[in-house]
Amino acid sequence: TDAHLEAVETAGALNAFVHRTPEIAREQARAADARLKGGDTPAMCGIPIGVKDLFCTRGVPSQAGSRILEGFRPEYESTVTTRLFEAGSVMLGKLNMDEFAMGSSNETSVYGDAVNPWRATGSDAPLTPGGSSGGSASAVAARLCLGALGTDTGGSIRQPAAFTGTVGIKPTYGRVSRWGIVAFASSLDQAGPMTRTVRDAAIMLGAMAGHDPKDSTSADVAVPDFEAMLTGDIRGQVIGIPGEYRMEGMPAEIDTLWQQGIEMLRDAGAETRDISLPHTKYALPAYYVIAPAEASSNLARYDGVRFGHRAKLAPGDGITEMYEKTRAEGFGPEVQRRVMVGTYVLSAGFYDAYYNRARQVRALIKRDFDEAFAAGVDAILTPATPSAAFPLGAMADADPIRMYLNDVFTVTVNLAGLPGVAVPAGLDDDGLPLGLQLIGRPWEEGALLNVARCLE
Ligand code: GLN
Questions:
Q1: Ligand 1 atom nearest 152 alpha carbon
Q2: How far is CA 133 from CA 124, 129, 153, 238, 323, in A?
Q3: Pocket of ligand 1 from Cβ distances under 6 Å
Q4: Is 398's pLDDT higher than 90?
Q5: What are the pLDDT digits (tens) for 197-233?
Q6: Nearest protein Cα to ligand 1, atom 10
Q7: Tell me, what's the pLDDT at 215?
Q8: How far, in Å, CA of 254 to CA of 387, rounded?
Q9: Which pLDDT tens digit goes with each residue over 229-264?
Q10: Residue 213, class by beta-carbon neighbours within 10 Å (0-12 exposed, 13-18 middle, 19+ buried)?
Q11: 349 in a structural domain
């Protein structure tokens, strides 16, 4: 714990940790020592972790990367952090992220950009660690903590993992409780671990997962020993290779990486099979209707009354001005864009044309996966991202849709509620990490991580 606290102190330039909690860490470390001495060795005993700022942590600032939650210190602890603490984890602090988890570069954060340790200094512009869990990825890659909590609504664990050479898994929807996590798009959000190795991800996921009566969408499904499932034996398994993920304009190095992954799994004794997921091309547009729709509803609670920031009012201002000024000051431009889009697609005149249509597309995307699994496919291998990490600022003035294209390989998995893991799989021509994604059957995170292990 002391070594990691020191590392956090000296790595300020990465802007990964936005609130440090050394007192809590030392107290938890002492408690872990006492448990070890007493012969009690829970899975995460004494393991220093970082927590994405989206999780409510009791008495500790929890701002979701937003100005509107300035000064908010929850009186309660999220289920996931509660479980990790019970399992002996040590919290070093809270991690940077895109505002309300909306973004793919950590540039929408009120705390400023998090930086990718693979290129943080030098004459070339520093690189993004990805987003929205950019601080989590940066911290794990820079060895500031042994594991970090991320959340993934459309790729926010897997894309930053791919950009930083770390492992990140988005579990099956319902595997991990969402209670006490600031909501973005409730039907898509899942929390998951970001770690250096697949084995660490298995251990940390096991400590987080399980049914929680406080989250009505959390599933009452037994949590197996994920670590014990990492036998490395994948002989006879069928790995689907979806043609629709071979996208036009995809850089050759991504294609090469994918091919290498296919060969590694074959060498390990798996059979690879070309499959079709025909509705893939509609996933991104459907996601960028459904996610903003749910976000516009979830973010209605930030009204200047209940949480955090409230704008200074002028004489004569009424409650409407208070809402308007508070939300205009408190939300950044990307969040405002999502609220506007979401409100529009849910409005009476457009609900059927956009929101209902997107929900129908979502059902078709899920059916594509169901059919592949029913035909005997055990897991699906795709690239995790369409490129390696890009320089901070490179997309600042671009059309927002260019940023949204980062999620092209990951959003399908959230729309279908499936588990997906990003594994570091190689380096590009500039020596930057690239990741592959494996998508699994519902509730089969253990089997999925076992395949992922073969790519490490
Ligand atoms: N980049 C995507 C978005 O901006 C995904 C974010 C996430 O998974 N939280 O919505």
A1: 8
A2: 23, 8, 11, 31, 29
A3: 101-104, 132, 152-156, 184, 291, 407
A4: no
A5: 999 999 999 999 999 999 999 999 999 999 999 999 9
A6: 102
A7: 98
A8: 7
A9: 999 999 999 999 999 999 888 899 999 999 999 999
A10: exposed
A11: no
Residue 414 lies in a domain: yes
Residue at 239 is within a domain = no
The domain containing residue 429 runs over which residues?
Answer: 2-232+384-453
Beta carbons within 10 angstroms of residue 23's beta carbon: 8
Q: Which atom of ligand 1 is nearest to the CA of 414?
A: 8
CA distance 118 to 137: 11
Gap between the Cα atoms of 193 and 191, Å rounded: 7
Task: Say which residues have a Cβ less than 8 Å from residue 371's Cβ, sequence separation at least 6.
Answer: none
Percent of the chain, pLDDT > 90? 97
pLDDT band at 138; cut points 50, 70, 90: very high
What DSSP element (H or E) covers 48?
strand 48-52
Q: Are 388 and 257 in contact (CB under 8 A)?
A: no
Nearest CA owner, ligand 1 atom 5: 154
Pairing of the two strands 238-242 and 271-275: parallel
Closest CA to 439 of 386, 368, 382, 370: 382
Q: Is 93's pLDDT higher than 90? A: yes
- Residue 5 parent element (H or E): helix 2-10
Sheet holding 271-275, edge to edge: 17-20, 90-95, 48-52, 147-152, 190-195, 167-170, 420-427, 433-440, 379-383, 238-242, 271-275
CB 247 within 8 A of CB 253: no
Q: What is the pLDDT of residues 290-331, one digit of tens each?
A: 999 999 999 999 999 999 999 999 999 999 999 999 999 999
ipTM over 0.95: yes
Q: 435 lies in a domain? A: yes
What's 131's domain CATH number?
3.90.1300.10
- For β-strands 167-170 and 190-195, DSSP reports them as antiparallel
Average pLDDT, the chain: 97
Q: Among 104, 299, 390, 403, which is best to mutate for testing ligand 1, by the most ligand atoms less than 8 A from CB?
A: 104
**d(Cα 69, Cα 288) in Å, to the nearest integer?**
24
Q: Which residues contact 342 (CB under 8 A, 6 or more apart)?
A: 291, 292, 293, 294, 295, 296, 297
Q: Is 20 helix (H, G, I), strand (E, B) or coil?
A: strand
Task: Output the CA 296–ligand 1 centroid distance in Å.
Answer: 14
Q: How many distinct structural domains can be found in the chain?
A: 1
Pairing of strands 433-440, 271-275: unpaired
Name the nearest CA neighbour of 388 among 196, 105, 124, 100. 105
